[in-house]
Design brief:
single chain, eight-stranded mixed beta sheet
Length: 388
Amino acid sequence: MNPRTTPRTRTTPRTRAASVRRPALLLTAGLSALSLTACGVVGAVGGDGASASPNRSYDITVGLLLPDKDTARFEKFDRPLIEDRVSSLTNKQGEVVYANAEGSEDRQSEQFRKMVADEVDVIVVNAVDSGAVAPDVERAKAAGIPVIAYDRLAEGPIDAYVSHDNELVGQVQGRALVNALGEDAENSKVVMVNGAPADPNTALFRKGALGELNGKVDIAKSYDTRKWLPEVAAEHMREAVKEVGAGNIAAVYSANDGMAGAVIEVLQDAGVTDLPPVTGQDADLAAVRRIVSGEQYMTVYKSFLLEATGAADMAVAKVQKRSIQFDALARDVVDSPTRKDIPAMLVPVVALTRENIEATVVQDGVYTVEDICTEAYAADCAEIGLTS
């Protein structure tokens, strides 16, 4: 990737999707800085929580609000990684108070208000609904509690944002489908199963994907999926099978892995034995196994370690009154519909296919070969050389 010599200017009107601008830097340099942050180098905070400044507060409480349990990564990776990092940065004195909304914006609002009432020091929130959470962000601001939007950009006066280049996620997914279809792409009917309309990332994923798909394939049907629910994605796919025809669907753009699993089940129930390429996102274990078996074509692997540790680093820095820009924790800026120039950390993404499972999720310690290659997948793992 070429270095950026000027900041990216806004290319679209400010909508519910974030506008992203980057200062001049090499992506590799940004990844290096993130890696250093994850290892405790940036800001002179060691991996054991040691600090060059004895005056920093370690007895802090971080409120963590996650949106659902349907997305496997939140409970399995994000929560424990943030808890471990906060503990490490605070000499084990810091505490993470956790709540999961289980897909309910009302429940998340109650959880948010309780954290404000309990006077936590900082709140990290992955919003169920980016707009609905704004009054609670305002409430925290009035109480002097910093709020960091995690994975999804929230509206209201948030202090920082940690996520990925979400338009790039869609580009990676769309490009993978075009490559998979090859010379037949132009005449291929593609079904798009997008994410939740209330999630601002959905618009970015879709924009990135359409930038790769438009003019190259025939988009036969496109759906937005309420709350990212796999059962809703299955309903959409059943409708697409009925209207387009199971045998006429050449590929499926699925915005994440949970929905990809539902899409594949519907196609199999419809009698499709030679499955079309299906995309995903999040590198869920079930999805990685489906990729090994050839049922799912690809997923987007986003480093949970870098994103989660980055959020924890920001949270602790905000409580300790340190500058997240000075500590190189926020090298980008984004705009939401309600605020401009939000300091942001955007973590790089990777297309995960059968060819690079070992070099991604296995090498990074997300899963072991034994996790992936259970008895049911042993022959497929051997076929691609994935052995312990």
